[in-house]
Write a structure and sequence with these properties.
There is one protein chain. The chain has one domain (about 30-184). The chain contains one helix and nine strands. It has one helix at about 1-20; strands at about 30-35, 50-55, 85-90, 95, 100, 105-110, 115-120, 135-160, 165-184. A nine-stranded antiparallel β-sheet has the order 1-2-3-6-7-8-9-4-5, with no helix packed on it. Strand 4 (about 95) and strand 5 form a beta hairpin.
């Protein structure tokens, strides 16, 4: 009887150890959030409300040529890595002059050398842009692309306040930055 109990205990222990080793490793493109106001998540002021939050993965440059090569010009891009990027507006806003209802959207882009198309799409929770459906677009706007002074190693999204009830959403990677005006 003691042998059966000991054997059962050893088998149970081996099963637990084997299960503990099945966790995935840290992703090469970690998940991140960008809020406006920029400090909202970690330094919220009394009575302050978020305007927008972006959930995205941050791929690395890794000595690769990014736009025009890894991310082709003229094709829909997931705007990051892994699952498609999601943008949540906590209130109605204007994105580059066009009205957007409060809600959560997928954020896709079509990079170009001089101009990008910014796309808000109603379909959520997809991997990449493989199942992107233009018929589900809620909004499309364009924004100019410009060159950064120093290459940016990881894809980044950041917001910057620009006057009364205005902000810029900045998308940057490698030597490219795109700034999209937001009014709220």
């Amino acid at each position: 009887m003691k042998k059966v109990i000991l054997l059962s205990f050893v088998l149970a222990l081996c099963t637990v150890i084997a299960q503990a080793q099945n966790f995935r490793k840290v992703d090469k493109s970690p998940l991140d959030y960008a809020y406006f106001p920029d400090h909202y998540a970690h330094d919220r002021k009394e009575g302050e409300k978020a305007i927008v939050r972006v959930t995205y993965s941050r791929p690395s440059k890794n000595d690769r040529e990014i736009f025009g090569k890894l991310v082709p010009y003229g094709k829909v891009w997931r705007t990051g890595a892994n699952e498609n990027t999601e943008i949540k507006f906590y209130q109605d806003v204007e994105l580059n002059g066009k009205k957007v209802k409060a809600g959560t959207y997928s954020l896709f882009t079509i990079p170009g050398e001089k101009e990008w198309t910014i796309i808000l799409n109603n379909e959520l929770d997809y991997w990449g842009a493989y199942k992107y459906n233009e018929k589900s677009d809620a909004l499309r706007v364009t924004a100019p692309a410009s060159t950064l002074n120093e290459p940016l190693e990881n894809f980044s999204i950041q917001f910057e306040a620009k006057g009364e009830k205005q902000a810029l959403m900045k998308l940057g990677w490698d030597k490219t930055v795109v700034e999209v005006p937001i009014k709220y």
